[in-house]
Specification:
CATH topology: Rossmann fold
Order of helices and strands: HEEEHEHEEEEH
Distance between the termini: 30 Å
Number of domains: 1
Strand order of the largest sheet: 2-1-3-4-8-5
Length: about 140
């Protein structure tokens, strides 16, 4: 299974935000993230400086280091799966807020097809303006 699952444009339209940095961007041009800068797998976003409002849809095969860096950065939005894991517990214990995305939420494959995960998806936010943006999508938790 590939980690190349892209966020659909409709989610960004609903958020109504611009991002300074997409920290785990698609390698090709199949991205809808409204970000001024992007780090792809070639840049290794985990080793690069994060600036401003970040968007993070990390590789789901190993989200833990991404979650740690996102929590340290403290300003942005992260798209993550529901998971029984230590990293998910870290998020729950943090001051980050989240919303559950609808069960029919779909990602986009590199070929442009709609794909669903077998698990639920969550949208996390740190920073007041980011929290207000995700609150438009569902009940804050």
């Amino acid at each position: 299974m590939s980690d190349e699952w892209y966020t659909p444009a409709i989610l960004f339209n609903q958020l109504g935000l611009e991002f300074d940095l997409d920290v785990a961007s698609a390698f090709n041009s199949n991205t809808h993230v409204p970000a001024d800068r992007r780090y792809t797998i070639n840049d290794d976003g985990l080793t690069q400086p994060w600036i401003g409002r970040v968007w993070m849809n990390p590789p789901y095969s190993k989200p833990s280091p991404w979650v740690d860096k996102w929590l340290e950065h403290r300003y942005g939005i992260a798209l993550l799966p529901m998971a029984k894991s230590r990293w998910f517990n870290k998020l729950m214990d943090s001051e980050a807020k989240f919303v559950l995305l609808p069960s029919n939420f779909k990602f986009i494959s590199p070929e442009g097809k709609s794909l669903s995960l077998m698990m639920g998806s969550t949208l996390w936010a740190l920073g007041e303006s980011n929290i207000n943006a995700i609150a438009r999508l569902g009940k804050l938790r």
